[in-house]
Amino acid sequence: MRGVRKSFGRLVALDGADLTGHSGEVHGVVGENGAGKTTLMNVLAGMVRPQGGEVFVEGVPVEFSKPRDAWRRGIGMVHQHFTLVPRLSVLENVALGVRSGGHGFRLPYPRIRRRLDELRKLTGFAVADEVRVEDLSAGERQRVEILKLLVRDPEVLIFDEPTAVLAPQEVKELIGVFRRLASDGRTVLLIAHKLDEVLEAADRITVLRNGATVHQCLRADADAGVLTRAMVGRDVHRGVRASVPAGPTIAKLMRVGATGSHGQAAVAEVGLEVRRGEIVGIAGVDGNGRGELSEILAAVREPDSGTVELPDHIGFIPADRVGEALIGSFNLSENLALALVNDSAFRQGPLIRWSDVRARTAEAVDRYGIGASGPQTRTAHLSGGNQQKLVVARELKRGRDLLVARNPTRGLDVSAAEFVRGELLRLCSQRGPSSEFDDRPGIVLISTDLDEILELADRIHVIVRGRLLPVEQSEASRETIGRLMLAGAEGPDGG
Q1: Is the confidence at residue 436, as pLDDT, over 80?
Q2: What's the rounded Cα separation, in Å, for the pair 284 and 268?
Q3: Could you read off the pLDDT of 353-410 as tens digits, one per residue?
């Protein structure tokens, strides 16, 4: 790809981007939120038509007007947000992408089953054909997306943030799959924000900044510092947690239980206290009750049993920013207003004072570095990372007493992730309990990012089969927490 350009209105997404991928390699594509990574890959996948530049496949210039054109040249993409149909089975979802080879109006199910069996051996993905997608965890859905791509046997495979919803061991296994695919002569293009994953997986790396390619190198010539400086133009330093004692209890769960969407026990006998000025970390993989517990803490669902004591002002950063937090057709101000409709400072009788909402939005755009031309920008036009920044900016303001954050830095580049972590630390240390009134919020951080939990949390739990297992600070490590997350080896039922 040479000199690729693309704008969406006044927003310049690509401004002369270059990328060269070779067969038999994993190629990492990194950059800040809004740098143009996904747009560049969408051009290659036929999802977006560029306004300038050239695309070559095997040395031949090509122009893709739709994804089918890219498929015909052996290029396929797994997108950042799932594109599966929840009510259909795994087999049916995979068949949607393979419509040829059947008889009459029948899809080629026997051939797809055989191919899926072959791919399970290649990848190690143990996902049953007849299970409905809505019954799968996020990690399992990611595997189905990859199987759906592989069934069509592409030569160039594009993965946009494929590890964002995975536990550490699952990430390691997926990187192994990428290496096997590359060793088979394919080209794997990997968009990722976690530099350690890129450095582990990639043979070659391209860095984008402000829509242009600013650095290309072999893995042997790169480290996290080199990539960070290329991405943001400077070094990024981690914040340091101030040692401030926790204040009074702000939220309390006592023997709380809840069932999942299909009647299974999702949360079982959970007891938890959250105090002002502390960050409580909860690690766990999907399917163990993380979602149900976070919704109970955020007061968006009632438990089936037990007692819940929650404060008035709660912020909630959900796992799915597109499905649960934002309305894509709304502009930034309208999405911010979703959390301000009951705030008297932004109301005049029954009316919203939009001038004040737009001023608050402009302040958030500036403070959080949201890549938008202004408060009137439609949220669907933002990159995934910039959408996440908008959610974080809104909910940190809203959670004056309690903030429930599920993977708050998911999809954020290294600079933005460190900024958000710094904001969480600032919230918990801005006023101490020695003050006349302790107004610090308590924070519940629910994350698959173990480094994030180890860095930020004052207390750590692992949720396993709906139960919370406390982790002693002296034993808190990636290995201990990761083992409990995946296996529950020391779980309450001895699993």
Answers
A1: no
A2: 15
A3: 999 999 999 999 999 889 888 899 999 888 888 899 999 999 998 898 999 999 898 8
| CA dihedral for 136, 139, 145, 148, sign (positive or negative) | negative
- The yes/no answer on whether domain 2-232 falls in CATH 3.40.50.300 is yes
Q: What is the pLDDT of residue 450?
A: 84
Output the pLDDT for position 252: 96
Domain limits of the chain? 2-232, 249-487
Q: Provide the pLDDT confidence category of residue 241 given band limits of 50, 70 and 90.
A: low
Residue 490 confidence (pLDDT) above 50: no
- Cα 270 to Cα 282: distance, rounded to the nearest angstrom: 12
CB 7 within 8 A of CB 51: yes
Give the model's confidence band at 238: pLDDT under 50 very low, under 70 low, under 90 confident, else very high.
low
Residue 303: its pLDDT value, please? 93
Q: What is the 3-state secondary structure (H, E, C) of the chain?
A: CEEEEEEECCEEEEEEECCCCCCCEEEEEEECCCCCHHHHHHHHCCCCCCCEEEEEECCEEECCCCHHHHHHCCEEEECCCCCCCCCCEHHHHHHHCCCCCCCCCCCCHHHHHHHHHHHHHHHCCCCCCCCEHHHCCHHHHHHHHHHHHHCCCCCEEEEECCCCCCCHHHHHHHHHHHHHHHHCCCEEEEECCCHHHHHHHCCEEEEEECCEEEEEEEHHHCCHHHHHHHHHCCCCCCCCCCCCCCCCEEEEEEEEEEECCCCCEEEEEEEEEEECCCEEEEECCCCCCHHHHHHHHCCCCCCCEEEEECCCCEEEECCCHHHHHCCCCCEHHHHHHCCCCCCHHHEECCEECHHHHHHHHHHHHHHHCCCCCCCCCEHHHCCHHHHHHHHHHHHHHHCCCEEEEECCCCCCCHHHHHHHHHHHHHHHHCCCCCCCCCCCCEEEEEECCHHHHHHHCCEEEEEECCEEEEECHHHCCHHHHHHHHHHCCCCCCCC
Instruction: For domain 249-487, give the CATH number.
Output: 3.40.50.300
pLDDT in tens, 329-361: 999 999 999 988 888 888 888 899 999 999 999
Average pLDDT value for the chain: 86
In angstroms, the Cα distances linking 28 to 20, 80, 160, 165, 366 are 11, 15, 10, 18, 29
> Which pLDDT does position 5 carry in this prediction?
96
Query: What is the number of residues in the chain?
Result: 495
Cα angle 208, 209, 215 (rounded to 5 degrees) comes to 50
